[in-house]
Amino acid sequence: MDSCLGVEQDLDKATSKFNALNDHTNKVLEDIITQVEDLRKEISKQPPNSPLTQTQAMVLSDLAANVKQTVFQMSTEHRELHATVSRVGKSIDRHFIVDYASVAPKAESFCSDTNRPIMEQAIAQHLYREGLEEVGDVFVEEAGVGAVERTCAFAALQRCAAALAAGDPAPALHWAQRRSHQLLHSPLPFALHTVHTLKLAREQGVGAAIEYAREQFPAHAARHEKQLAATVCALAWLTPGAGPPPAHYHRLLDQRALGAEAAELFLREACALLRLAPLSPLAGAVMAGARVIPALHDIRAKMTHQHVAAAWADDELPLEVELGAEGGGYHSVFACPILRQQASDANPPMRLLCGHVISRDALHKLAMGVKLKCPYCPMEQSPSEARQIYFS
Ligand SMILES: [Zn+2]
User: Fold this and answer.
1) For residues 97 and 93, what is the distance between their CA atoms, to the nearest angstrom?
2) C-alpha 392 to ligand 1 mean position (Å)
3) Tens-digit pLDDT profile for residues 252-293
4) How far is the CA of 351 from the centre of ligand 1 (A)?
5) What are the DSSP calls for 265-277, one per residue?
6) How far is the CA of 350 from the centre of ligand 1 (A)?
């Protein structure tokens, strides 16, 4: 965080310098344009083909010299700005760790013959999922990616959410209406009707909005009494000539903020309903990576002893990554209650006949020939009756 603040300071300096130069340049240019225009008007007043008066010739040559001088000055000032911009780049280098090779020594494995197509598929899938079909098509064609599903349920949701954020709740409302029986306990329908009501008030007048509200809101009145009252009162500030609204109506009357809020709710509710992950596999991996890399880097710096370094497995992280609410949980993991080890492909979880689950290594250790006594219940069974469990 300190690193971000450090870079932000330098970035702020560069931005304010840039803005100051921009304002100054615009002003200087406007002045010169006015002077040129004035002179042109003055000259055009004279009869055609008549020579310039001595004063006019002097003013003209002065102005030409002035323009030349200003252009020179502007290009010098612009060149000086480069130093400030390059300082931001240096600040990024200074504040952030550039080389993470020690944490991810196998980064080149993304380029191996086996992994490269998987990476490319993940990228294409991400693009299609975000509703960027055209970009995805070009990528698939140029990279020669095979077998990627072009349409996915999430892309349709993404389009509804984007329209909602841009102020058009119609596609999202249509989607929600088709699933109204599944959304009985969701706050989504009410949120969408609210956005639509306020949009109607803006575009067609408060009368149309009230008519819509009368049709749609009664079904939600019991659950959203307070918000409903606030929405209806907010209409008063959308009538022509209404004064500035009180602070607690700002959220409802800020069209963009309300749209963005509703779009976020829409994606959350729709993903939960359709059992879709809110992030694409690629976005999820990038997010998890971004969260874990600083911690990994710290641990790596401290793990210099050979025995400790051996704990750094190739396919397993030495620490747990908290992905937060938006990260979701992607994989179920199983730790053997007997050996206290996380299950792996080589040592998968096995379900015993009695229903208890232990790892295969533990099963082999506990088995006495063809007999096995469950370590949790005394049920005796044959080890061959245990079944491997697969997590999807
Ligand atoms: Zn048992």
Assistant:
1) 7
2) 24
3) 888 888 999 999 999 889 988 888 877 888 888 888 888 888
4) 9
5) HHHHHHHHHHT--
6) 12
